[in-house]
Every structure is written in C-alpha cells, then in structure tokens.
Write a structure and sequence with these properties.
By secondary structure, the protein is of the alpha+beta class. The chain contains five helices and eleven strands, in the order H-E-E-H-H-H-E-E-E-E-E-E-E-E-E-H. It is globular, with a radius of gyration of 17 Å. The relative contact order is 0.21. The N terminus and C terminus are likely disordered.
Length: 217
C-alpha cells in the first residue's frame, strides 16, 4: 500500500509540473530567523553537504534542503537551492497537505548512471537516524526522465524528496539505498560548526556576497 501510494504521488505531481508556481518562500519551520545563519556569508559548496552511496549500477547523491545548513553555502549555491524549492512549492505543499504534514523535511536526491541501461528505484531511499528509518512521503521530480527508472552512463535525474520530519542536520544520520549506506553525516558536523562560526563573524564585519532578494509579500 505504501509503495502504491508513493508512486501515485509521483505520477500526480508530474501533472502539476507545468502549473504556475506560488511566489511564497518555503517556511523554515526550524525555529526563528535568529536561529539561522545569515545568508550570503558562507563559503561551502553543495558537495560539502552531499551524502553519497553507490552500487555497480547507480550512484545516489543526497543533499538536505535545510536552511540551517544551506545558508552556509556560497551565495550562488544557496540561491540556486532556494529557488529550486520556491519553484516547486505548489507540488511540495500538495504532497505535505495530503500527508497531514505542515513542515516536511526536504532533500535534493540525484541518481547517476554508472553503466548502460542501469535500473534504479526512487522509492527505496531512506534516512536513518537514532534507530529510526524515514521513508519518503512523496517525490517531486524536476527532470523529465525521472519516472523511467533507467539511466545510461553519465545520465542523471533529480527530484525533491519529502519526509515526515525536518532533516536531522544537528544529529548523526545516514542515507540508505538498495542495501548501500552513505557515510555518516556526523563526519560533516565539525566542518559545519566551523563554518557556522565563521559566518557569524563575517556577518558582523562584512557585506554579504550579494543582497538576498526581498521576501514576497
């Protein structure tokens, strides 16, 4: 029943792909704005946030879309991820509402083909934290071939995954796919803590890389 429901969510969202998107920014839902790093002062790249795993056919790359860590990225990387969430807000809200969740956890998941006609199953990506396993509530694809579940060498597809709780970026967690487990997020936490301190210091004495856009009314 769970697999059928998730597949229906994917198919339904493809029908919304061409619909006009709401301009509202996704609510952080992880505390007040004062708890978040100041955007525009980070120096990390998207790869610094990525957890990866691979088997003979597929490589999976998982990036938490959580403002507590995305605001530590360089402005262009942060702005790109923020715009990605904004442009798919209607689909995200639809999945969350249908699941009774007001503040889902979001992640950017990308599958890369490692050999010709490599098969993948987008529904078996899980987040594992403190002996709990979280499966996706729904998937919002934004590359056309996502539901084909087949890739050739160097081809890739991506989607936004929704989970029932916000990403556990302040805890140790791993991502699993088809028996393959990523490196532990805890290995990144020291780097993220250092960057968070640097961002706080820079924000007091420097101008940001660029001024963030005004929030829509």
């Amino acid at each position: 029943m769970k697999t059928t429901r998730t597949l229906l969510v994917i198919v339904a969202l493809l029908g919304l792909a061409g619909a006009p998107m709401s301009a509202a920014v996704q609510s952080d839902g992880q505390g007040g704005a004062s708890d978040l790093p100041v955007a525009g002062y980070g120096s990390l790249n998207q790869s610094d946030l990525a957890l990866q795993g691979n088997n003979d056919e597929i490589e999976v790359r998982f990036v938490p879309l959580d403002e507590r860590v995305t605001r530590l990225l360089r402005w262009d990387a942060y702005s790109s991820l923020r715009s990605l969430v904004q442009s798919h807000k209607r689909q995200i809200d639809s999945v969350a509402s249908g699941s009774g969740i007001s503040n889902p956890g979001l992640a950017l998941v990308t599958f890369f083909g490692r050999r010709a006609a490599a098969r993948y199953d987008p529904q078996v990506v899980t987040v594992q934290v403190r002996n709990r396993v979280f499966r996706p509530l729904g998937i919002v694809p934004f590359t056309p071939r996502f539901t084909s579940q087949q890739l050739d060498v160097r081809q890739s597809v991506s989607a936004i995954y929704l989970f029932e709780e916000t990403m556990p970026v302040t805890d140790a967690f791993t991502v699993a796919y088809a028996g393959v487990t990523s490196t532990d997020w805890s290995q990144k936490r020291t780097m993220l803590d250092r960057e968070r301190a640097r961002v706080a210091g820079r924000s007091r004495v420097q101008r940001p890389d660029t001024l963030p856009p005004a929030e829509p009314r």
